[in-house]
Automatic annotation (TrEMBL):
It comes from Sphaeroforma arctica JP610. This is Glucosamine inositolphosphorylceramide transferase 1 N-terminal domain-containing protein. The lineage of its organism: Eukaryota, Ichthyosporea, Ichthyophonida, Sphaeroforma. Residues 15-30 have a biased composition (Low complexity). InterPro entries: GINT1_N, Glyco_hydro_beta-prop_sf, WlaTC/HtrL_glycosyltransf. It comes from the Eukaryota. Residues 1-37 are annotated as: Disordered. Residues 120-419 form the Glucosamine inositolphosphorylceramide transferase 1 N-terminal domain. Keywords: Membrane, Transmembrane, Transmembrane helix.
Length: 889
């Protein structure tokens, strides 16, 4: 069967052999390595047929050379060699798939997230924040961003940028921040607003305030008198290049969410980023035309009433403005000179670096000094670069704009747009992915080549290779073990991916205070005044904290002197220490965080309920008691509302110095909205049309009462404040249904440090179940009937005042919806409160797991309960729950 087979001999002669050993070719495709001992060989195949192999050269070992003859090579030997190669290639393919799969999955994740809030986009991850310093050049960025896309809930936001702030000299007046919000629904930019009650230390997102049918951005806002009868007037000049106009809108600090179009200042070109300045009695405007990379200069004797005339040197050419530094990037300002030192005033304007470049756009902001500015001449020179800081911070890659304000001599605060991703992140990602794939292919090819070479080295190596081919590559048991190990490794990795990550919407950041705490700024005159301001605010806050113990029902604070407040607070604390029955001698602890929870046997109220969903029937009271024990084991201060029959269970696991128990025998007794709830449930025209009519809240009133009384229990705990806490959180008695509450041991949960870090002092912290849609606010009936859930009611909380405000809003919306003849669960009423006031809530989203993101599934099972990971001590995975715990048997 072989035309020519040559075997090398010690003397260099060759011996030919022809014929066949009589083995038939194995056409079944299976590799049979037990037919004969396998010889390592190399052959040159000249045709595709095995029987037509013209030459086969066999390298032989010393053992073979000592033998007088060498056996001939059969078709079966060659077929075994080919089959071994096929197996080897198969495993190389498996290795390639395992290597490339994460890249492919992440690519799908990018595509899937490209139109969701904070999803991937090709513009970067812009956020807004604040910087501070002794002058408008040397600025130190706040530790964290002030507002991110995650804060924006009324529209799906890709990023926020173009930051402008309106500080106030009045300590009681809120600071305002305006910025562009990239709206994924409309595909263009809107103008959003946030406010700060503490001089820029914290920012609370309010809402979209300018929403046109075209793109708007760069909300240049300034205080300017429009009408002598209107005080605190504001003027906004946003970018409206989409309609070839520069428009002015007006509002006031009293109603900063309401803006009205006033007039068009200039038109005729697609002017971007118009920035104005009054200097020597004349108003000047710089406006950029992107298509020409030109900056145009205009002047007028009035901001709103006068006519804007283009400067004779406009557009400013290369002699006046460098081509890389033309596009405005912030508020122009005048640095007043010291006349006694014969120093002249300086005009400073900020520009984007590389505005005309495709790559590198907005890498930094440059401060330019305008050396000559009048109605006939213009000149400027480069002054200072304001750069990103590197690393992983919110302004680590790019700086978009700077809006600097002198708060007091030697103390400047600036609104900043920062990016921590860089320009064209998706493009760069896919390019890097292609490079990695090519690299993986080259590596696989090299691996195959090296393997093909090394198998010829030494008899021992050949025997090991033969053993691997015979026993490992094809043995079904070994293959099964390898497959199981690989599967377990993948599941283990995905198990961690299913767990939660820290919130992306962290609102706590440094602000301007630490500037005065730095040693090098200790002699700045303004710092002494600032420290006095902080000290004064701390005293006021302390008094307000004591007043929280004597808050009356309408959420107003009792007017009292400091001594009266102190005496009343002391009396409240003393009463709380002895309020618990049998608790004399067990003084209550002081805890920074109080948890409020409850457990009621609702089965006694549901015996008449028919056609209730099976999954609720399966959740017996015994199951809830078992889940409740996980709550009782927490090393935290608890306020518990419970029935008398379950009180013994509490004291089996709790101490009297960290627990307050309120016994309520009948949850529905005396509830003011009970009759209204029953009326809705008896309305078959409504209950028959709701989604999932078998839900317990649609079957018996006690379930609804229990849900709606959560906020009442929280208010009672805030007012009483038995543990003199600063933060209060509601936690469902069956939180996580036994799957997400680990044994924390002696660790305090929620960790007070994490609470201070993550929770806004001016909002109610709550988990976001789904992206809230502000369009649903217009039709609450449809929203309630469709059981659309935006917020998770199992865990929420914050400081006293936001919770009291929430209580008021909740009952206002509950009364309103019951009067409309509609009802859903407590989370639906939460959404109605959000519709009433977006800024009341700090909504954090549990990051969905990777598989959910790839498939586009919104209902990921960790979206309700990731507060466990958010507020645990140490690393987020310190109390990781194994995947098997998620499987309900």
């Amino acid at each position: 069967m072989f035309d020519n087979i040559s075997v090398l001999t010690p003397k260099g002669h060759s011996r030919s052999n022809s014929g066949s050993r009589g083995h038939s070719r194995n056409n079944s495709g299976n590799c049979n390595f037990s037919a004969s001992p396998r010889k390592t060989m190399a052959y040159n195949r000249q045709t595709s047929s095995v029987g037509s192999v013209n030459s086969l050269e066999l390298p032989v070992s010393e053992d073979t050379l000592l033998k007088p003859r060498s056996r001939s090579i059969s078709e079966a030997d060659i077929e075994q060699y080919r089959c071994a190669n096929r197996v080897r290639v198969f495993f190389f393919v498996i290795l390639a798939i395992v290597s490339i799969a994460p890249l492919a999955l992440h690519s799908l994740r990018v595509i899937n997230n490209s139109r969701t809030s904070c999803g991937w986009n090709n513009d970067g991850a812009w956020v807004t924040g604040v910087a501070y310093g002794p002058n408008p050049y040397d600025l130190s960025y706040g530790t964290n961003a002030g507002v991110t896309c995650a804060n924006v809930k009324d529209v799906p936001a890709g990023f926020v940028t173009d930051t402008f702030i309106v500080p106030s000299a009045d300590e009681s007046e809120k600071w305002l921040m305006f910025f562009e919000v990239r709206n994924y629904d409309s595909g263009h930019g809107d103008i959003g607003m946030a406010w700060s009650p503490d001089q820029g230390a914290h920012w609370v997102y309010e809402s979209i305030v300018v929403n046109e049918t075209y793109h708007t951005s760069y909300p240049f806002v300034l205080r300017h008198s429009v009408d002598p009868k209107v005080t605190n007037s504001l003027v906004m000049i946003p970018e409206t290049s989409a309609i070839n106009e520069v428009r002015a809108y007006v509002s006031s600090t009293d109603t900063p969410t309401e803006w009205t179009y006033f007039e068009t200042l200039i038109s005729g070109r697609a002017y971007s980023d118009a920035s104005v300045l009054e200097y020597n009695g004349v108003w000047y405007m710089w406006a950029y035309v992107a298509s020409e990379n030109d900056v145009h200069l205009f002047y007028s004797d009035s901001l709103l009433e006068g006519t804007w005339t283009e400067h004779p040197m406009s557009p400013l050419g290369a002699a006046q403005v460098h081509s890389d530094f033309r596009r405005p990037a912030g508020r122009p300002l005048v640095l007043r000179g010291d006349k006694h030192a014969h120093k002249q005033d300086k005009v400073i304007r900020y520009v984007k670096e590389g505005a005309q470049r495709l790559v590198g756009y907005g890498a930094a902001v440059w401060a330019l000094e305008v050396t000559e500015l009048n109605t006939t001449h213009y000149g400027e020179r480069i002054q200072r670069r304001i750069s990103p800081v590197g690393g992983n911070g919110w302004v680590s890659k790019r700086v978009g704009n700077v809006d600097a304000h002198e708060i007091s001599p030697g103390l400047w605060v600036a609104g900043i747009s920062g990016d921590h991703t860089g320009d064209y992140p998706v493009t760069r990602y896919f390019i890097s992915t292609v490079v990695l794939l090519l690299g993986a292919g080259v590596l696989l090819a090299l691996t195959y080549t090296v393997a093909d070479i090394t198998k010829r080295v030494g008899a021992t190596r050949r025997h090991l290779h033969r053993f691997a081919m015979e026993k490992v590559y094809t043995h079904p048991t070994i293959l099964s073990i390898l497959t199981i190990c690989l599967g377990m490794a993948v599941l283990w990795q995905f198990d961690f991916l299913l767990d939660c990550r820290p919130p992306v919407n962290v609102v706590n950041f440094t602000g301007i205070g630490p500037h005065c705490d730095l040693p090098e700024y200790g002699d700045v005159a303004s710092c002494e005044g600032y420290r006095k301001l902080v000290e004064k605010q701390s005293i006021v806050a302390a008094i307000a904290g004591l007043d929280a113990d004597v808050i009356v029902a309408d959420s107003t604070v009792v007017d009292s002197t400091a001594n009266d407040v102190a005496h009343k607070a002391e009396a409240v604390v003393q009463n709380n220490e002895h309020a618990q029955e049998g608790g004399e001698g067990d003084a209550l602890l002081e805890c920074e965080v109080t948890l409020v929870t409850a457990l009621f046997d609702l089965g006694r109220y549901s015996h008449k309920a028919e056609n209730m969903e099976e999954k609720f029937k399966a959740r017996s009271f015994e199951k809830y008691q078992a889940w409740f024990v996980d709550i009782l084991k927490l090393n935290s201060c608890l306020v518990i509302y419970i029935e008398e029959e379950s009180e013994a269970l509490v004291w089996e696991h709790r101490n009297k110095n960290n627990t307050v128990v309120h016994v309520i025998q009948n949850i529905t007794e005396g509830y003011e909205n009970l009759s209204a709830i029953k009326k809705v449930l008896n309305d078959e025209s409504y209950t028959s049309q709701v989604v999932r009519p078998g839900r317990p809240e649609m079957k018996f009133a006690a379930y609804g009462v229990t849900m709606f009384k959560k906020i009442d229990f929280v208010k009672e705990s805030v007012v009483a404040n038995p543990f003199r806490s600063e933060y209060f959180f509601w936690l469902d008695g069956g939180y996580g249904h036994g799957r997400r509450m680990p044994d924390f041991g002696t660790e305090v949960w929620p960790d007070p440090k994490k609470v201070r870090e993550y929770v806004s002092p001016y909002q109610v912290f709550i988990l976001q179940a789904d992206q809230p849609d502000s369009h649903n606010c217009a039709d609450l009936r449809a929203t309630f009937m469709n059981h659309k859930t935006a917020m998770a009611g199992g865990f929420f909380g914050g400081k006293a005042q936001p919770l009291l405000d929430f209580h008021t809003s909740f009952h206002r919306q509950l009364d309103k919806t019951l009067e409309m003849g509609i009802m859903d669960d407590d989370q639906a009423v939460f959404f109605a409160s959000w519709c009433e006031q977006h800024s009341l809530f700090q909504m954090e989203q549990c990051p969905p797991n990777v598989m959910c993101q790839i498939t586009g599934t919104k209902r990921c099972f960790d979206r309700w309960n990731c507060a466990v990971s958010f507020f645990s001590e140490g690393d987020v995975h310190a109390h990781h729950i194994p995947l098997i715990n998620w499987i309900e048997m």
